[in-house]
């Protein structure tokens, strides 16, 4: 199991600098790309596209803008789109596939129980880890014979549930 996105697994974190193309623009991390979707304001888009702003700064500034009203309904879809792009490119694609079928969890100490799991309480929905496993399944299944895809998808999910490693 990978239970924190630090150290040798820091590349799983959205704060890891990488190239991401999202809805017609280039970003320098998946955090920048994800945060850009919080508002359609051109100044906000430009701020997120400026690689001179750290992922932490972009996240902090996103608390001060007028976020689109339906953000909570669309944010998981936005994150999925961003992660698909990040992991479509090397070396991240191979790094993710090389984790095999192990459980991924964003254990954190900043109290995020939506995207990760709070290490102090053990509580959290782990949407980031779940999306990463979903993207990894897509990459893995894309290389398999089409007829086997439904059964392989089921087997991978069952293995993660009953034999997490
Ligand atoms: N605070 C933090 C991370 N939190 C990141 O913030 C994003 C969620 O933002 P929001 O939807 O506004 O709550 C999501 O990408 C999550 O992984 N990540 C990291 O690597 N290091 C950090 O210190």
Automatic annotation (TrEMBL):
Which InterPro entries does the entry mention? Answer: NADAR (IPR012816), YbiA-like_sf (IPR037238)
The residue ranges of the NADAR domain are 8-139
Chemical reaction(s) catalysed? 2,5-diamino-6-hydroxy-4-(5-phosphoribosylamino)-pyrimidine + H2O = 2,5,6-triamino-4-hydroxypyrimidine + D-ribose 5-phosphate; 5-amino-6-(5-phospho-D-ribosylamino)uracil + H2O = 5,6-diaminouracil + D-ribose 5-phosphate
Pfam families annotated for this entry? NADAR (PF08719)
User: What is the name attached to this protein's record?
Assistant: NADAR family protein
User: Could you tell me which species this protein originates from?
Assistant: Phaeodactylibacter luteus
């Amino acid at each position: 199991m990978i239970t924190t996105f630090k150290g040798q697994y820091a590349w799983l974190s959205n704060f890891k600098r990488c190239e991401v193309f999202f809805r017609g623009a280039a970003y320098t991390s998946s955090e920048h790309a994800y945060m850009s979707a919080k508002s359609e304001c051109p100044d906000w888009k430009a701020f997120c596209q400026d690689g001179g702003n750290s992922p932490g700064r972009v996240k902090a500034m996103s608390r001060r803008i007028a976020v689109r009203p339906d953000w909570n309904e669309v944010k998981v879809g936005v994150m999925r789109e961003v992660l698909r792009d990040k992991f479509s490119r090397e070396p991240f694609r191979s790094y993710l596939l090389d984790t095999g079928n192990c459980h991924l969890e964003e254990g954190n100490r900043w109290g995020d129980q939506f995207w990760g799991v709070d290490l102090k309480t053990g509580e959290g929905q782990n949407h980031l880890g779940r999306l990463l496993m979903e993207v990894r399944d897509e990459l893995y299944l894309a290389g398999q014979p089409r007829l086997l895809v439904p059964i392989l998808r089921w087997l991978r999910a069952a293995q993660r549930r009953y034999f997490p490693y």
